[in-house]
Automatic annotation (TrEMBL):
PANTHER family linked to this entry: CELL DIVISION CYCLE 16,23,27, CELL DIVISION CYCLE PROTEIN 27 HOMOLOG
Coiled coil: none
SMART domains: TPR
Keywords for this protein: TPR repeat
Transmembrane segments: none
Start and stop residues of the TPR repeats: 414-447, 517-550
Stated name of the protein: Tetratricopeptide repeat-containing protein
Length: 559
């Protein structure tokens, strides 16, 4: 708190005594001083500086103005000038505690350790029992790593004013830095005795007992905190963390589920608990018991807060990550109804629909989302992707073009342009397709999907094959086990006439166990070029069995 009212009174009263010589200057200076203090309190520091400098010139450099200038320059982070005026104030009134405290603060901000300590020790010579001076000295020693000296000063404060919780807390921090665990706990227990209803201190003590392995004592303290306030989220989180560390999954789940089902608790506080538990599941996703408790928590949350949209968004995100897409879609649909402007819920729902190959529903939902959240690159991208995957490339192109114009981070921009390249390739607009792929790689040079698709399209057209080879080889450096990428490399070599390498890469693609009918057909084509007609027909036959629509292979098989 700034002490300008007192300083103003001390400074102004003497100036009201009769003095005719400087009457006009005094009046102007006082006015500038008052207005400067007002500007300072309004955080208009530049204005305050100019007004206070005017007062300083017209009022013959009084210490109150010097003090105010020092504080103003400190707020402007102009430490050299702050120190100049701070020293002037101290020299004019050496016994003023406020002047010395301000100068010490300036020196401390400038990292002048010794000068800070000198000012504080001098202040205490004039005012040996001053709480502010002692506390700042203890805090300064703490910052400089002199924890023992800091505690010595804090003990002086305790003798003077009793066991103040903030003083004890600083002692705790000092002992913690000294790795003096027992002494640190003593301070927390003293805080607990001095302020037994302080939940922050109880939580801190519980956390400290937990960190030092005294789980039983930690649970005792935290239960005490919950007895005082059964709805304190921090106490619940700390206690449930201990249960989780002890693998008492059901105890943690029950504790938090009961909290979330409480109708008197604000949904925002429940959200904090739900996010906490979600983060624990993310750390241990294979833990079935933990997932069971998480599902109980999220189901309870949405049941107890049926009108709270964020609960459904978070629940939908959890079930999506947990591999429960149908439940996730139900939760996200409700989130969209409750919070139609929530772009996160729309994006998650569209991504799920797309991954479930529900392309028509993706388009339908995406168009609704675009009405509620226009100009969203993700939503427009999902609509365009839905059209593309539903073989409606002409409708896909304008949506992807819109997505490319909307604000988005560079990696996602790259994904948009890569998909736009695919759409234009499907439309046989090859020049525009190549342009889109090049933009994708400009936004993200490591976009392996863009590299692969661009290379494959070039190879199919038999154009710029060296560029295609460069891109295809770089793609498998990024993702060496990708079946499609290996096939692309093989097909580029096929188009270059290097059939031996083509065969080896396409075989590697087949060996992944994920080869498509197209890859099998390519292996037949390579063997045909190598003169292995029986093997070629066998591969073509396998391709036709995998994809009966490849009827163009029948004459080759029977030829």
């Amino acid at each position: 708190m700034r002490n300008y009212f007192l300083l103003f009174a001390l400074f102004i009263i003497p100036q009201l005594l009769p003095a005719q010589v400087q009457q006009n200057n005094d009046y102007s200076g006082k006015s500038a001083y008052i207005n400067g203090l007002e500007a300072f309190e309004n955080e208009a520091y530049e204005e305050a500086r100019e007004l206070l400098l005017e007062a300083y010139r017209n009022l013959d450099q009084p210490p109150g103005v010097s003090y105010a200038l020092a504080d103003t320059y400190l707020s402007l982070n102009d430490l050299p000038n702050a120190a100049v005026y701070g020293k002037q104030a101290v020299e004019a009134d050496p016994e003023s505690k406020w002047y010395r405290l301000k100068l010490a603060e300036i020196y401390r901000s400038a990292g002048r350790n010794q000068a800070t300590l000198e000012q504080l020790n001098t202040l205490l010579e004039y005012h040996p029992n001053d709480f502010e001076g002692l506390y700042m000295l203890a805090d300064t020693y703490k910052d400089y790593g002199e924890f023992v000296r800091s505690n010595e000063i804090l003990d002086r404060i305790i003798k003077l004013s009793g066991e103040d919780p903030q003083v004890l807390l600083m002692k705790f921090r000092n002992f913690e830095s000294l790795a003096a665990t027992d002494s640190a706990v003593v301070q927390l227990e003293r805080i607990r005795e001095a302020d037994p209803d302080n939940l922050q201190m109880l939580n801190l003590l519980g956390q400290y007992y937990s960190r030092t392995g005294e789980k039983a004592e930690a649970k005792k303290v935290l239960k005490d905190a919950l007895d005082r306030n059964a709805r304190d989220p921090q106490s619940l989180i700390t206690l449930s963390t201990i249960y989780l560390e002890e693998q008492q999954w059901d105890s943690a789940g029950t504790l938090l589920t009961n909290f979330i089902s409480d109708t008197l608790i604000q949904p925002e506080n429940k959200m904090e608990i739900a996010r906490f538990f979600y983060s624990r599941v993310e750390q241990d996703p294979q833990n079935i018991q933990l997932r069971v408790e998480a599902e109980r928590i999220f189901d309870t949350f949405t049941e107890s807060e049926p009108e709270f949209g964020p609960a459904f968004t978070l629940s939908g995100e959890y079930y999506r990550q947990a591999g429960e897409p149908e439940i996730a879609l139900e939760k996200l649909e409700q989130a969209n109804k409750l919070l139609p402007g929530d772009d996160i819920a729309w994006r998650q729902r569209l991504q799920l629909l797309l991954s479930q190959q529900k392309y028509e529903e993706t388009i339908e939902v995406g168009l609704k989302a675009n009405e509620e959240v226009p100009e969203d690159a993700f939503i427009q991208f999902f609509i365009g992707s839905g059209y593309m995957l539903n073989d409606q490339n002409k409708k896909a192109e304008p949506w992807l073009e819109q997505a490319a114009r909307a604000p988005a981070r560079r990696p996602f921009k790259s994904v948009i342009y890569s998909t736009l390249g695919d759409v234009r390739a499907n439309l046989e607009n090859h020049e525009a397709s190549d342009e889109a792929y090049e933009l994708a790689l400009r936004y993200d040079p490591d976009n392996d999907n863009a590299m692969n698709n661009y290379a494959y399209n070039l190879s199919v057209r038999g154009e710029n094959l060296e560029r295609a080879k460069e891109l295809a080889l770089k793609a498998i450096e990024v993702n060496p086990e990708n079946s499609a990428y290996l096939d692309t490399v093989g097909w580029v070599y096929y188009k270059l006439g290097d059939y031996d390498r083509a065969q080896r890469f396409i075989k590697a693609s087949i060996d992944t166990g994920e080869a498509s009918a197209e890859v099998l057909e390519h292996m037949g084509d390579v063997n045909e070029k190598l003169g292995n007609m029986e093997e070629a027909r066998d591969w073509w036959r396998q391709a036709l069995e995998k994809d009966p629509d490849r009827t163009h292979l029948e004459p080759k098989i029977n030829g």
